[in-house]
Write a structure and sequence with these properties.
Helix content is 59%, strand content 10%. The protein is of the alpha/beta class. The protein has a five-stranded parallel sheet with strand order 2-1-3-4-5, sandwiched between helices. The longest helix is centred in the middle third of the chain and has 25 residues. Bound molecules: CO-5-methoxybenzimidazolylcobamide. CO-5-methoxybenzimidazolylcobamide (B1M) binds next to helix 6, strand 3, strand 4 and helix 10.
Length: 233
């Protein structure tokens, strides 16, 4: 029996490129960070470009995770594990991508608003956005308007993302948006908002561009809105 199990063990280094990327999609889905690190290193050793590893092995795998999360097949704990595995692969690729000058598909500044310390959902959104190929600047929790403005000025992102989990803190999103309007900066950014107490109506009322129900929707919406804006430019 033990012998049988050993025979079944998959040796990543022995797989063809196609089988290895498919296996990495499965390993991401299963949240296996060590296997993702190993697979990433093998593909790099085989001469793969870091951006090809990112797109074909990691981003493609996270897309499957995102779809199944959206469809209620995967739940938060599994997605956090998958996102952590993705992060482990990203940690190897990030410096290499910086060297090759590979461009992210866009930049996002994200934070949980002032007065609010909930960050699990926001972190998940940040990870999914990274998984989709965005460069993400996470301002953390309890972020006030000055911190948002400073980060927007510093990073010049395509997207500003705000998260709130409390009915008492969600109105602060409007404070940030109104400040951007006052400073004639509102049109510079796509603004997406999310968090359990929000809805479409609230997002429209405060002047955001989109409300995102969950992290998968956030990443799909971010990709769509950035593509639309670039096409219109
Ligand atoms: Co708090 N808490 N909490 N809490 N907490 C809630 C939110 C609450 C609904 C619980 C309840 O009473 N049923 C309630 C809010 C009630 C209300 O306002 N209507 C509440 C309360 C009252 C409080 C305190 C006031 C409790 C107290 O001290 N008396 C206090 C507030 C502290 C503060 O922020 N100032 C508090 C504290 C805490 C903990 C510190 C203990 C902890 C947070 C730990 C942490 O985040 N590091 C905590 C937790 C864990 C929760 C619950 C149980 C779970 C939240 C969570 O992480 N969900 C929560 C109850 C609940 O929501 N069921 C609750 C999982 C997460 C993946 O989902 O965050 O919704 P979520 O994110 C989703 C989507 O919303 C969306 O995508 C995410 C992933 O799919 N999304 C975005 C989120 N942000 C987005 C941004 C986007 C796009 C999508 O674009 C930018």
């Amino acid at each position: 029996m033990a012998e049988e199990l050993l025979d079944d063990e998959i040796v990543l280094a022995e797989l063809s490129d196609g089988d290895l990327t498919a296996q990495m999609h499965d390993d991401l889905y299963d949240g296996l960070a060590d296997e993702i690190v190993e697979g990433t290193e093998i593909l790099l050793e085989r001469g793969w470009d870091p951006s090809r590893v990112l797109n074909d092995a990691l981003v493609a795998g996270m897309r499957i995770v995102g779809i199944d999360f959206r469809d209620g097949i995967l739940f938060v704990p599994e997605v956090l594990l998958a996102a952590n595995a993705m992060k482990a692969g990203m940690a190897i690729l990030r410096p290499l991508l910086a060297e090759t000058g590979a461009q992210p598909i866009g930049k996002v500044v994200i934070g949980t608003v002032k007065g609010d310390i909930h960050d699990i959902g926001k972190n998940l959104v940040g990870m999914m956005l990274e998984g989709a190929g965005f460069e993400v600047f996470d301002l953390g929790i309890n972020t006030d308007v000055e911190q948002f403005l400073a980060a927007l000025d510093e990073h010049k992102p395509d997207i500003l993302g705000m998260s709130a989990l409390l009915t008492t803190t969600m109105p602060y999103m409007k404070v940030v948006i109104d400040t951007l309007i006052e400073k004639s900066l509102r049109e510079e950014y796509i603004i997406i908002v999310g968090g359990a107490p929000l809805n479409e109506e609230f997002s429209e009322a405060i002047g955001a561009d989109a409300y995102c129900r969950d992290a998968a929707v956030a990443s799909e919406t971010a990709e769509r809105l950035v593509a639309q804006r670039r096409a219109a430019a």
